[in-house]
Write a structure and sequence with these properties.
alpha/beta; 5 strands; Rossmann fold
Length: 122
């Protein structure tokens, strides 16, 4: 199963475009009617769709801890550094997400063992 990403409003739209241009399944929140959703709703949606949540919002670290306490699982949360904006964010996000995709795609890691249920600070 290939790695799939769900990006919230903090991540530039062009990141999705660049990932898709490389054949990676990625969606941004407004594409699925979730632009005005609360952060926990983003995580719930990503989980239901089998996608890794990609954000710059620190709230997701708290949600991760809460889900662990409740014995709930999610598809993985990847948090980009908050200070990255504009072109710096785009190039960094594409490079990091592509690297994770390729690790899973080539068998160097698995979604189940290395990403699902994990909080990953990129």
């Amino acid at each position: 199963m290939p790695l799939k990403f769900y990006l919230d409003t903090h991540i530039a739209k062009v990141v999705v475009v660049q990932l898709r241009n490389r054949g990676i399944d990625a969606v941004r929140c407004e594409e699925v009617g979730m632009a005005a959703a609360k952060d926990f709703e983003h995580l719930e949606y990503a989980t239901q769709e089998g996608r890794v949540m990609v954000t710059q919002d620190d709230d997701f670290a708290r949600f991760h801890a809460q889900w662990l306490q409740e014995a709930k699982s999610h598809g993985g949360i990847m948090i980009l550094p908050k200070e990255l904006k504009a072109q710096a964010q785009i190039s960094y996000a594409v490079r990091e997400l592509l690297a994770y995709y390729e690790i899973v795609d080539t068998g160097g890691g698995t979604i189940k063992d290395d990403i699902a249920g994990q909080l990953i600070f990129l």
